[in-house]
Amino acid sequence: MNKNRRRNLIPRIMVVDDEKDILSIIKRGLESDNVFKVDTFSNGESALQAFESHSEYYYDIILTDIRMPKMNGLVLCKKLRKIDSKVKVCFITAGEMVFDFALRKFPDSAILKKPIDNYDLIKEVTRMTNA
User: N or C terminus: which one in the chain shows less Cβ crowding within 10 Å?
Assistant: First the structure.
């Protein structure tokens, strides 16, 4: 991890999904009690660029859809872990086969199934951030 990055006072979450409605629902759900700060990205490329360029803070968790055009969530995770090998990742998916593949490829990650229940989302993110 970049040594210049400092610990966030409020856990900072990066959410990546090509569906704008999903981004809005997750952001609204996680920021509702002012416990989390959420930045949303509609594609893997912009998320990767933001992750690389934000040296003043870091993301506590990355929530990413697996199936996205251009750069899917698995490729994004691999690239993020080259930058920060300890970054916590939670995949979001509706596909059973992709679900199993993601767990085999990244066994230390978490997975949430679409449609995402707000209670399960907050519970998992809280667990992963120890908030």
Answer: N
CB atoms closer than 10 angstroms to residue 92: 23
Asked if 86 and 117 touch (Cβ cutoff 8 Å), the reply is no
* 55 residue type, one letter: S
* Strand residues in the chain grouped as ranges (E): 12-16, 37-41, 61-65, 88-93, 110-113
H or E segment and range at residue 124: helix 118-129
Which spans in 58-105 are helix H? 73-83, 96-105
Residue 120 Cα distances to 45, 92, 95, 114, angstroms: 27, 12, 18, 11
Reported as a single tens digit per residue, the pLDDT across 59-116 is 889 999 999 999 999 999 999 989 888 889 999 988 765 556 666 677 678 888 888 8
Give dist(CA 48, CA 58) in Å, integer: 12
Q: How far apart are CA 64 and CA 109, in angstroms?
A: 11
